[in-house]
Amino acid sequence: MAPAPPHHVVVGGSAAGVAAAFGLREHGFTGRVTLVDAGTDLPYERPPLSKPSGGHPAPRPIMPSSAYREQGIELRLGVAVRDLDTGTRTVTLDDGDRIAADAVLLATGVSPRRLDIPGRGLDNVLVLRDIDDARAWAARLAAAGPVVLLGGGFIGLEAAAVARRRGLPVTVVEATALPLGAALGPELARLVVQQHVAHGVRFHTGRHATALHGAGAVEQVELDDGTRLPAATVLVGCGVVPNDALARRAGADTGDGIRVDGHGRTSVPWVWAAGDVAAYFSPYTGRVQRIEHWDVASRHGRAVGASMAGVHTVSAEAPYFWSDQYDRRLQMFGRARPGDRMVLRPDAGPEHFLGFWVRDGCLVAAAGLDAARQLRAAKPLIERRIPVDPAALADPSVDLRSLVRAGTAAA
Questions:
Q1: Residue among 148, 200, 152 nearest 175 (CA)
Q2: Residues in domain FAD/NAD(P)-binding (predicted)?
Q3: Is the pTM of this model over 0.85?
């Protein structure tokens, strides 16, 4: 009797999970592949959730259902994974079913950090994690009344832009002194904030909410300085926590995520992890960390899927993210560190900018607003660590592609 084919189980219908399942097939894995997700919808894209365009947003599938059939990827939707049994190498589902697995990939992502203050259970206090949350947010955008956003990160500011375009009063409460300061640095973060101020967004920085007030539904947000902000809707965007409980119970090393090596393997040999939940060494940051962006998660998932198939692969492209701010797109390649030299082109303003970070004579990151062409040209400079002259980066007349060509010829 022929032995049963190997079976790899992917837990989580996230960008990383879907990419890993298809990565297994693309790199020659011919055994069984099962993707398990607690949601009932076909795995869908998460970035559009913060910017619904209509009254009842529909999920946008990552891949069509036909693609799963064609690749022989079995979907188990509407059921969560309850436990991993390392001794028997089985996956226990919350409906009681047990699945034998030769390898498991955890692509469980992150969850919004919840408020722990009085009034957190009032109606119209929202987070943005899944399609149901997006529909609740869309419904509130159609209602009258002021919106208070707790957290001035990318999700919060995208939501602020959407709400202002609907004509709603918007206030952002941010615990740090400058929204997006850690991600973009003070020079670029100030320009993004200026754009929002010009659109009528109000900011309370260096503040946090201490209580929510209302009779049934939220009516006010109380801040730590005693200020009370009127609110018909509160959207909470105060960071995330990694969904690493399955890995911890299975005995894998965790600590702000599931720790993995360069190929995605955890400290438990049959368990792998990818995407937002995975903490791994990035040459672009010089440390072990999670990188929480859609494009990064998808690329990491595909690389880990390839490694699980026996084609050892490292996701080596520069980290990339984008964020829609009103009708403009903010993009960034690479990652900056404290101490990097910031180079800002002189034509920078709240509606368009291009900035660079230089370390040890090389470009390590670039970010811009409505600067897609220049950023695409900067990407190979970052990835190939081509030495650059900061004065050339600052000069709007310099074509960055010429710097790539010159650096390649000199190598």
A1: 152
A2: 7-301
A3: yes
